[in-house]
Amino acid sequence: MSSARPSNLPAAAPFWMSVLMLPLVALAAVLGGWWWLLIPAYAWYLTTAMDGILGLNQENPDPETGTAQLFWHRAVTIIWFPLQFAAIFGSIWYVQQMGHLSGWEKLGLFFGIGVLSGTIGIVYAHELLHQKTPLERWLGDLLLASTLYSHFRTEHLLVHHSWVATPRDAVSARYNEGFYRFFWRVLRDSPASAWRAETRMLARARRTPWDRRNPFWRYAALQLGMLALAAAFGGWQGLLLFVFQAFIAIWQLELTNYVEHYGLTRRHLGEGRYEHILPRHSWNASHTASNWLLINLQRHSDHHYKPERRFPLLQTYGTDEAPQLPLGYPAMTFVAMVPPWWRRRMNPRVRAWRRQFYPDIEDWGPYNRGELPMPRNAV
Fold this sequence. Notes:
The protein is 60% helix and 2% strand.
C-alpha cells in the first residue's frame, strides 16, 4: 500500500462532512413533516451510496506525522460539542416556543438528532477521550453526558481496550448472538462493569469508591446538568425529547460496537491467559466515504492495535492480517438490525476467519457461549 501524508485543510476537508448534518436538523425543526428523514438518509444511505461510487481507500498515512500537521483534522472534533449542544437544546427550545410541530414530528426530529449525536457525537467523543489534553478529554465527557452514556469512557478505556474479544468485555458480540440480545446484555452489564473497574483502580491507591477522584461523580453531575437544561428549555416534554435522542444515540453506538468485533475472539492460552490483541481481532473496513463521516473508526483493527494513534494516522490492513467487512458501518449496522440477514452475511465470514487464523482450534463452543475463564487480573 502506498503512503500518504496528511497536510492540513485539503486532507482534512472530507472529514468535515458531518457538519452538513446540522443544516438538516435546522430544516427539520423549521419545516416539520418528513424533513427529519434527511438526517438518517444522509448519514446512512447517501454515505453508503458514496462508498459504492468511491470504493476503498487503502492508502496509509505516515504514522510519524506530527500533531501540528493535524490541526484541521483535530478541529472538527474540538468544535463539535458546541455545535451538537446547539442542535439538541436549540431544537428543544425552538419547538416548544413555536408550537408548530405535532407530537410525531417532534419525535421524528429528535430521532434525527439522536442519529446525529450517536453517529457523530459519540464517535467524536471516542476520539477525544483517547487523547491526553484536558480540553479534549473534557469535550469527550461533555459529548457523552449529552447522550446520558458517560460510563462509556471508563468501560471503553479500562475494560474494552484491555479485554476486547474475551469474556470480560461486554461489547464483544459473540458468534450467533443477535443484536437485540447483545443490546440488552450491554445495557445491563456495562454500567456495573465500569463501576467495578473504577473502584478497583481506586482500591489499588487505597481509596474508597466514594472518593472524589472517582469519575462517576463527574459523570453524574454532567448528566444531571444536561437533564436540568433540557427541562429548563422545554419542560417535561423537553426532558422526554432529550432522553429519547439519548436512547437513539446509544442504540447507534451499540450497533457499531456489535459490528466491530462480532464473533472474533482471542485465543485462550490456559488459566485465564489470552493472547495479545492483534489486528485480526477487529473487523476492518476501508470504505472511503463512511470513513470520512466516522473519522476512520472503521480502521478499527489499527485502533485496537495502536490505540494512541489519532484518527488521521490510522492504518488499514489487508486480508492476510485483519478480517474485512463487505460494506461500511452504516450499511452493516442496518443489516445487524435483522438478525437472520446478519447471520447469513457474517457467520460464514467468522468461520472463514477461524479457519485462516486458528485452524488448530476444534471446539469453538466455549468461545461461542462466553464460557471461557475470565482473564487474570481483569478489572
